[in-house]
Specification:
EC number: 1.5.98.2
Shape: globular
Strand content: 15-25%
Keywords: Oxidoreductase
Structural class: alpha/beta
Number of helices: 13
Domain Luciferase-like: 16-178
CATH topology of the largest domain: TIM Barrel
Largest sheet: 8 strands, parallel, barrel
Radius of gyration: 20 Å
Strand order of the largest sheet: 1-2-3-4-7-8-9-10
InterPro entries: F420-G6PD/mer (IPR050564), Luciferase-like_dom (IPR011251), Luciferase-like_sf (IPR036661)
GO molecular function: coenzyme F420-dependent N5,N10-methenyltetrahydromethanopterin reductase activity; oxidoreductase activity, acting on paired donors, with incorporation or reduction of molecular oxygen
Number of domains: 2
C-alpha cells in the first residue's frame, strides 16, 4: 500500500504518550485536534511529545483564523520547529463547531487563504501588511528561535471553495471522506481523516466492548445528522429529533459535547452496531484493509486515523496491524 498511515488525536493530557506509541508503531505523523472548548491545548501537548519522539511528524489540525492572530500562530509553529526540526506541519481551516462553540462563526475561505499566505510569509522572516499596518516576527538569536522557518502548511478543505484555496496556497490538504465519495480534487498530498476500530475474532459491531471503544468517534456520524453517513436511519432521525426538541440555543452544545473524545448519555441512546458499521471504518482486519484501499483509490495519499475510546494504545496498535505496518 503506497498510502501512508498517520493519526489525528483528540488532544488530551495523555496525548504526548500516545504520540510516542504511534511513532513506535510506524505512524508517519500525529495531528492534534484544536478546539479550545473541548480539547487540551495542542501546542503544549506537541511540545511535550517532541521530547519523547525523534521521527514522527507533529501537527495541529486545524488552526482557525478567528481564534488567534497569525503572528501568534507563527511564533508557536516556529517554537515547535526548534524543538522538533523538520517534523512540524500546520493545517489551517475555516472551522465550524470549534468556532461556534466559542460563540462565533467559521472563517471565510478568503480569510483562510490570506491567513495561510501571511503565515508563510512571517515564518519566512518577511514583512506583511495586516489591517493597514506592517508587521513581522522580530525574534533574535537570544530567543532561541531561528528564522526563516520552512514548514508545510496544509488546508483543511471541504467543498469547491476550500479545495480551490488549497490548490492555490497549500502544501497538502486534510479532509474527511464523509463529505462525499467523489475523487479528492487536489493535486498533491491528501490526508483523509477518519475513525473506526478493528474487531477481534468473533466480535460483532454491536458488542458492548466494540461500542465502548469506538463510540466517541462513531457518535460523530450521529452528530452530522441528515448531512452525514447515517442520513435517514432510525438512529440518525431519533438523535436529530431529540436535538431539535431542545431550545435552539442549547442544540449546538448538546450535539458537540464530548465531540470525538467521550460519549454523552444522549449519544449512548442511539449508538448501535448499525452506527458503527455504517458510520465508521470498522470491521475485521481484511474489511478495514478493503476500506482503506477504496480511500486510496479516491485520492488519499495519507490516511489519518482517529482512535477513540478508553484504550487509545490498543486502537493505534490494532489499526497499524490492519494497515500492514
Amino acid at each position: 500500500m503506497a498510502m501512508e498511515l498517520a493519526c489525528t488525536l483528540s488532544t488530551s493530557i495523555a496525548t504526548p504518550e500516545h504520540i510516542r506509541i504511534a511513532e513506535e508503531l510506524g505512524y508517519v505523523s500525529a495531528w492534534c485536534h484544536y478546539s479550545p472548548a473541548i480539547y487540551a491545548d495542542p501546542w503544549m501537548m506537541l511540545a511535550l511529545a517532541s521530547e519523547r519522539t525523534s521521527r514522527i511528524g507533529l501537527g495541529v489540525a486545524v488552526v482557525v483564523p478567528r481564534f488567534r492572530h497569525v503572528a501568534d500562530i507563527a511564533s508557536s509553529a516556529a517554537t515547535l520547529t526548534q524543538l522538533a526540526p523538520g517534523r512540524v506541519t500546520v493545517a489551517v481551516g475555516a472551522g465550524f463547531s470549534s468556532a461556534a462553540l466559542l460563540g462565533g462563526r467559521g472563517a471565510t475561505w478568503a480569510s483562510v487563504e490570506a491567513y495561510v499566505t501571511n503565515l508563510r510569509a512571517l515564518l519566512a522572516g518577511e514583512q506583511i501588511e495586516l489591517d493597514g499596518r506592517k508587521m513581522s516576527l522580530l525574534h533574535s538569536k537570544e530567543s532561541g528561535i531561528s528564522l526563516p522557518v520552512d514548514i508545510p502548511i496544509w488546508v483543511a478543505a471541504h467543498g469547491p471553495k476550500g479545495f480551490g484555496v488549497a490548490s492555490r496556497v497549500a502544501d497538502g490538504v486534510i479532509t474527511n471522506p464523509t463529505h462525499g465519495n467523489e475523487k479528492v480534487p487536489f493535486q498533491g498530498t491528501c490526508g483523509l481523516s477518519y475513525y473506526g476500530t478493528v474487531l477481534e475474532p468473533g466480535e460483532t459491531y454491536d458488542d458492548p466492548a466494540v461500542l465502548e471503544r469506538v463510540g466517541p468517534t462513531a457518535a460523530l456520524a450521529l452528530h452530522m445528522g441528515p448531512y452525514g453517513p447515517l442520513a435517514g436511519s432510525a438512529e440518525e432521525t431519533g438523535f436529530t429529533a431529540r436535538i431539535n426538541a431542545l431550545p435552539e440555543e442549547e442544540r449546538l452544545v448538546a450535539t458537540h459535547r464530548g465531540h470525538l473524545i467521550s460519549l454523552t448519555e444522549l449519544d449512548r441512546q442511539f449508538l448501535t452496531g448499525n452506527v458503527v458499521r455504517d458510520g465508521t471504518l470498522s470491521g475485521q482486519p481484511a474489511e478495514v484493509r478493503a476500506g482503506l484501499d477504496a480511500l486510496e483509490e479516491a485520492g488519499a495519499s495519507r490516511f489519518c486515523y482517529t482512535p477513540g475510546g478508553p484504550d487509545i494504545p490498543r486502537e493505534l496498535e490494532a489499526f497499524a496491524k490492519a494497515f500492514g505496518l
